[in-house]
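Board notes (copied after class):
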Amino acid sequence: MFGVRIGVDPSWFLILFLIIWSLSGTYGDVFPGDETQAFLLAVASALLFFISLTLHELGHAVVAMRNGIGIIGIDLWLFGGVAKMRRDTDSPGVEFRVAAAGPFVTLLIVALCVLAGLALEGGVFWEAFTADSEASVAGAVLFYLALINTFLLLFNLIPGFPLDGGRIARAIVWKRTGDRARATRFAARLGRGLAYLLFGLGVFALLNGLLVTGIWAIFIGFFLNQAARSAELQTRVTARIEGLRVEDVMEADPVALPSLTKLDRALEEFFLRYRFQWFPVVDGAGRFLGLVSREKVEEVPEQLRPGFTVDEVTTREDAGIMRVGLDESVESLLGSEGMARRGAVMAVDADGVLRGVVTLDQVRRALRAPTPAV
């Protein structure tokens, strides 16, 4: 959606099952006597909730893309959803806009559900989840969506990293201090404080016989604590490469295969000579077209290779994720799908001409470099 890949982690199916199981009992109490209807309403409500959660994450993603930040994708998982950005925000204003976009979308969803419910049910809407309610099934579903999204909104606005409220707090501190690392540490400490609070609430719930609530609070607290620690660590790492651009670390003038090279020549003069498993392919003007692998070349029978060109066996589908602009930050490469797949990305200029290659080893060397004294 909007050019963003949306997927689900296997853990998502567990939370989907738990929500359907819980809602089946709730709808069974609201509309007694029809277990099939209760189950179908539970399924519909759970799926609509995850659609609204996806829209929340799309809010983050769309605003990030409008501010020049690439999005790897959106994944739904055990604890909700996450929009994975290719790099961190580069100013407190962008950080605030990206962080606030998700809660704003959720607020709109709550408002639409409430308005639709009131238009459909009138004052009965507020009693849609009570026994012997006169609300229709549509009113009950709208009430659930308004209720669960209100909870999602309020929870996300708690000022603790990595929640949206924590990122908003980071943006405010960043704006006041001018120091992203300091702001991240502040927001991460708030997040860890929230995690410890949830740990305590979880233990209290367990001691009082609330098994599911206690376990869930402890799980969420553990996740928030780990995420906050990871944010602090990532900030320390990225501080080492802050300001570095792709052209600062790339290997200039990489070996590339012209697209019209015959396959027999490509095998003998490139693959057998350099012992690489793949090469970037360029057209006559030097523009990056894609990658060609030795495996693809050798799939063509030997007697036919003099009649085929590299262009005919070039893989172009991944060209988009394998290229990066010369002026992009090295930090953006840390989340690069191309780097993860091939261990390297192609550096191109504004015209798409191949100018260099950045390997995983070069990024590692940049990360190990001492931070300049201020």
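Comment from the instructor: Residues 246-368 form a domain with the CBS-domain fold (CATH 3.10.580.10). The first helix runs from residue 11 to 30.
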